[in-house]
């Protein structure tokens, strides 16, 4: 019984939240990695693209709710998601036409594009705040829990509860579907193959008659879909706040780099590595150990490796270690 | 485009036409950054006081207009805040600074800009105990109480409820750390135990790690010294979702209707305290704020009104806009004895000061400055029931 309690406590506080957070980071990192692989620059505007997509989805959600339309026990935002993706795709295509194309035509160095993307980031940042405001917005509706801590205790008779939020379940399922679609697209369709060819060798791809503008446009549309999905899932699970989305950029980049920039598989792995390293290394093991250890060996302290202050230090330490030993990331990506 | 040009030209003309009789007051608050959701109401509070004095038109013998100049303290970036304050002082030439908001940037502006340039400042919301002992040449005041006082009040609240073990999490900045330390000292002295004191960063993506550590340490209640729309809320939400804690203790930064609405039934039975008084001034200010079109219950909006009002009354009392002249008057005006002044009575106050009558500014927050020029601190103990913040008593 004690052993079960220990497992449930670990699941409840480490595994389940870590999985959901990891999936959100993975989706974000996929967008970053695609842009790096195909357009060859680090897109600092990605966090704010997520914020913009989420904002568009929230507005559509409000519209649906005002029209009296809901999605049963699922959040209404899932129906509004395609609208959000479409609006974000338009914004990204517009930005590309107005800003990035100019620099691409001149074959600007990647570092210039990075700085340009920072400018874009600040403008998007402003647009989002201007339209929807700076406040914290909660737009999740529908059922809150698949199973709540209290219900779980009643059902199993254990001392520890296990809570699984419906948003966590939705996050994992949606992320899995999005990743499956992306890989099918990249590996099985003609456009996807041309994108990979473009990423591998731009000049050779051009010689084989691949239309670069088309590849770029498709990339932006996919990035819009990934960023909006990641942003909406994150917002459903926690809440929407422009400032937080801006800050999401750091763990997302860490995930993309750890996994290997330009490698989609790496982005997914990187997302989970960063999420779990943040949660596990700073976890206080007291609760779990009290259950599994014999009584006279039970710890009195917290059995915490590092205080939670250091959780960001942990993910960046992992980032540095990976770059030292495998400069291209865990999965073979491009070196930075 | 033509209209825009015309408008800009007109604005430039107006700016140029500003006469020497303008008294500029810098309003430096974090209009961007972690406090961006409450600073608009704070600035509106200060500007309400300014508008009131301008409407009276009697400041310093009449014909003087107080012009607010806003600047962004960012709340967290000391370098940016210092640069913004420097600009206010050197390029805009402000006679006084209403601000800053967060304790860290306030300390930076005080040390790097206010003291070297001899400009006095009154902060409406910096509550770190560290600022009580900071060197200030008599140029720094605050209409918010130090958190050293709040730590004691919070301990009293917990002890009265018979709670002896708590877990503590605080936002990792001068405010959170100051409050957490003050509370930890007071609580330990009263015989309580803190199982864990875990900081959290604001505006971050995920708080599972913090909640996991807090839950593992355990405690009867969780004290959350954070902000309503930042990490504090994230921690409470995640604690409730995972069943880690069901009762929360909420200090000033965490008391807000928005939090209660967002979290819902989970907050039932949670309690806390925030600066507040049963003085009539508070209600009068709410009424004025509603009429002016902003939310007077928003955190630190009344303190901002009081800060701006004190600055202008002190100028009148000194008969000068020079900080060295008016700063020494602030304590006298804020404290008894004298005729009590409530919000909306600034015109009357100016008349009284001119006539040489002693006044006691009560304002929107029952201002009483003690020690190095900080509010003595009246607190409202609250408990949340069914989505309503109920006042239990005043301490």
Strand-helix topology:
The complex is a heterodimer of chains A (336) and B (395).
Chain A: H1 2-38, H2 46-66, H3 77-105, H4 110-132, E1 145-147, H5 149-156, E2 164-165, H6 166-188, H7 190-200, H8 202-207, H9 212-237, H10 242-259, H11 264-281, H12 286-292, H13 311-325
Antiparallel strand pairs in A: 1-2
Chain B: H1 2-17, E1 22-29, H2 39-56, E2 65-72, H3 78-92, E3 96-99, H4 103-117, E4 121-123, H5 130-133, E5 140-145, H6 147-160, E6 165-171, H7 174-189, E7 193-200, H8 208-217, E8 221-225, H9 231-242, E9 248-250, H10 257-263, E10 271-275, H11 280-292, H12 301-318, H13 323-326, H14 330-334, E11 339-341, H15 346-354, E12 359-361, E13 369-370, E14 374-375, E15 379-385, E16 388-394
Parallel strand pairs in B: 1-2, 1-3, 3-4, 4-5, 5-14, 6-7, 6-8, 8-9, 9-10, 11-12
Antiparallel strand pairs in B: 10-15, 13-14, 15-16
Helix pairs in contact in B: 2-12, 3-4, 6-7, 12-15
């Amino acid at each position: 019984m004690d052993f079960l309690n220990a497992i449930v406590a670990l699941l409840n506080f480490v595994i389940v939240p870590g999985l959901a957070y990891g999936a959100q980071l993975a989706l974000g990192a996929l967008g970053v990695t695609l842009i790096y692989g195909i357009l060859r620059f680090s897109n600092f505007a990605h966090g704010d693209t997520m914020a913009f997509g989420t904002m568009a989805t929230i507005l559509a959600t409000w519209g649906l709710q005002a029209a009296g339309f809901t999605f049963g026990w699922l959040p209404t935002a899932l129906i509004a998601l395609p609208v959000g993706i479409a609006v974000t795709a338009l914004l990204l295509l517009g930005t590309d036409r107005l800003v990035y194309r100019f620099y691409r035509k001149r074959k600007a160095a990647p570092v210039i594009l990075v700085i340009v993307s920072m400018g874009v980031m600040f403008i998007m940042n402003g647009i989002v705040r201007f339209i929807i405001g700076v406040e914290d917005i909660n737009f999740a509706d529908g059922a809150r829990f698949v199973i709540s801590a209290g219900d779980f205790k009643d059902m199993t008779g254990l001392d520890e509860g296990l809570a699984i939020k419906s948003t966590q379940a939705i996050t994992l399922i949606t992320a899995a579907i999005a990743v499956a679609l992306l890989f099918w697209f990249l590996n099985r369709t003609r456009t996807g193959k041309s994108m990979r060819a473009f990423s591998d060798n731009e000049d050779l791809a051009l010689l084989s008659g691949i239309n670069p503008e088309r590849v770029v446009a498709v990339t932006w549309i996919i990035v819009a879909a990934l960023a909006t999905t990641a942003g909406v899932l994150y917002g459903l699970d926690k809440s929407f706040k422009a400032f937080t989305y801006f800050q999401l950029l750091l763990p997302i980049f860490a995930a993309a780099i750890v996994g290997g920039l330009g490698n989609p598989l790496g982005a997914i792995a990187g997302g989970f590595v960063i999420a779990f390293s943040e949660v596990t290394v700073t976890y206080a093991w007291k609760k779990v150990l009290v259950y599994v250890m014999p009584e006279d060996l039970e710890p009195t302290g917290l059995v915490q490796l590092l205080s939670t202050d250091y959780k960001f230090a942990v993910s960046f330490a992992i980032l540095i270690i990976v770059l030292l030993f495998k400069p291209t990331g865990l999965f073979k990506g491009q070196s930075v | 485009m033509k209209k825009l040009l015309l408008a800009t030209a007109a604005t430039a003309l107006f700016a140029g036409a500003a006469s020497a009789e303008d008294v500029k007051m810098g309003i430096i608050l974090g209009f961007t950054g972690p406090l961006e959701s409450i600073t608009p109401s704070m600035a509106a509070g200060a500007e309400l006081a300014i508008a009131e004095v301008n409407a009276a038109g009697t400041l310093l013998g009449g014909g003087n207009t107080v012009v607010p100049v806003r600047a962004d303290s960012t709340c967290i970036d000391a370098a940016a805040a210092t640069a913004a304050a420097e600009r206010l002082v050197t390029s805009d030439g402000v006679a006084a600074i209403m601000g800053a908001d967060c304790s860290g940037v306030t300390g930076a502006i005080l040390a790097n800009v206010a003291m070297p340039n001899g400009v006095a400042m009154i902060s409406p919301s910096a509550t770190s105990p560290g600022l009580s002992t900071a060197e200030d040449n008599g140029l720094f005041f605050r209409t918010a109480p130090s958190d050293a006082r709040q730590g004691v009040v919070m301990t009293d609240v917990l002890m009265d409820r018979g709670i002896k073990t708590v877990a503590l999490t605080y936002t990792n900045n001068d405010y959170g750390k100051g409050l957490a330390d003050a509370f930890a000292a007071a609580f330990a002295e009263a015989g309580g135990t803190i199982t864990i004191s875990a900081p959290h960063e604001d505006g971050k993506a995920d708080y599972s790690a913090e909640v996991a550590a807090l839950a593992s340490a355990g405690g009867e209640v969780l004290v959350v010294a954070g902000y309503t729309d930042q990490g504090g809320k994230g921690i409470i939400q995640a604690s409730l979702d995972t069943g880690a804690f069901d009762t929360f203790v909420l200090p000033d930064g965490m008391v807000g209707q928005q939090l209660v609405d967002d979290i819902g039934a989970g907050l039932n039975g949670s309690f806390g305290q925030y600066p507040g008084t049963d003085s009539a001034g508070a209600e009068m200010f709410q009424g004025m704020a509603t009429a002016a079109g902003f939310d007077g219950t928003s955190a630190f909006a009344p303190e901002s009104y009081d800060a701006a009002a004190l600055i202008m009354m002190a100028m009148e009392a000194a008969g000068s806009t020079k900080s060295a002249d008016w700063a020494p008057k602030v304590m006298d005006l804020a404290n008894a004895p004298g005729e009590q002044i409530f919000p909306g009575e600034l015109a009357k106050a100016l008349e009284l000061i001119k006539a040489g009558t002693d006044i006691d500014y009560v304002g929107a927050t029952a201002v009483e400055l003690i020690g190095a020029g900080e509010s003595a601190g009246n607190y409202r103990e609250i408990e949340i029931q069914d989505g309503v913040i109920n006042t239990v008593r005043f301490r």
